[in-house]
């Protein structure tokens, strides 16, 4: 299992390092469309999408702030967003995994206690 975890961490690190490639790409990132962009791309805006417009505001809009107008500043914004996102997901998956395995460990402890009592 350690080898799988190590390989996963290596791939995550590679993806985080490659994050600023999005800055040099033309157009908008897939799925990051505003209502206006979606209207121009497909000709209409689905009702559910329009009703949720403005409900969520990104903590780091456009991956940066006023200081991030240069390529270096934008790169730092992308790295910050990537590190925050990966960290939040890692904590979430760790907590879910711990909760899922807790029941299994409890059952194993119960079986072990029964075996020892007999």
How would you explain this protein's 3D organization?
This protein is mostly helical. The protein has one domain (2-117). The protein has helices at 2-18, 21-24, 35-42, 47-52, 71-117. The model has no long low-confidence stretch (mean pLDDT 78).
Number of domain modules: 1
Instruction: Name the overall outline.
Output: elongated
Provide mean pLDDT, rounded: 78
**Helical fraction:** 55-70%
Short overview:
By secondary structure, this protein is an all-alpha fold. It has helices spanning 2-18, 21-24, 35-42, 47-52, 71-117.
What keywords describe this structure?
118 residues; mainly alpha
Question: Which secondary structure elements does this structure contain, and how are they paired or packed?
Answer:
Elements: H1 2-18, H2 21-24, H3 35-42, H4 47-52, H5 71-117
């Amino acid at each position: 299992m350690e080898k799988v975890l190590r390989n996963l961490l290596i791939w995550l690190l590679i993806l985080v390092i490659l994050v600023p490639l999005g800055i040099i790409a033309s157009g908008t990132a897939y799925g990051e469309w505003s209502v206006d962009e979606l209207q121009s791309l497909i000709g209409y805006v689905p009702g559910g999408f329009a009703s949720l417009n403005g409900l969520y505001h990104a903590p780091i809009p456009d991956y940066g702030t006023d200081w991030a107008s240069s390529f270096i500043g934008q790169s730092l914004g992308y790295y910050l967003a990537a590190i925050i996102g990966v960290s939040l997901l890692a904590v979430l998956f760790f907590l879910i995994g711990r909760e899922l395995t807790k029941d299994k460990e409890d059952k194993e402890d119960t079986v072990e206690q029964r075996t020892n009592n007999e």
